[in-house]
Amino acid sequence: MCFTVAWFIQTLIWLTIICGIIAILMLILPIILGWLGWAGDLVMKVIKIIVAVVVIVALLWFLYDLYVCAGGAGAARLR
Question: Max alpha carbon distance in the chain (Å)?
């Protein structure tokens, strides 16, 4: 089911949900962690790094899926 309208709509829905969750977390967590002082600041920086890593891994996974869809079954075997 590569490059169909249903695939495109499903991808857009997942991207919207993920972006919404990340935006809510980035708004609420600094308020919650603010009472910890410097420890809360450190925790927030760690959370931002983790979110960045998760976004990069998701992007790589998405690009690999596009590569496999575009290349057919033979493209799945990387040498």
Answer: 54
Would you kindly state where each structural domain of the chain is located, as residue ranges? 11-76
This prediction has a pTM of 0.62
Distances, alpha carbon 19 to alpha carbons 1, 22, 47, 70, in Å? 24, 5, 15, 26
CA–CA distance from 3 to each of 45, 61, 73, 78 (Å)? 37, 16, 15, 21
pLDDT tens column, 39-58: 778 888 888 888 888 888 88
Asked whether the beta carbons of 15 and 8 are under 8 A apart, the reply is no
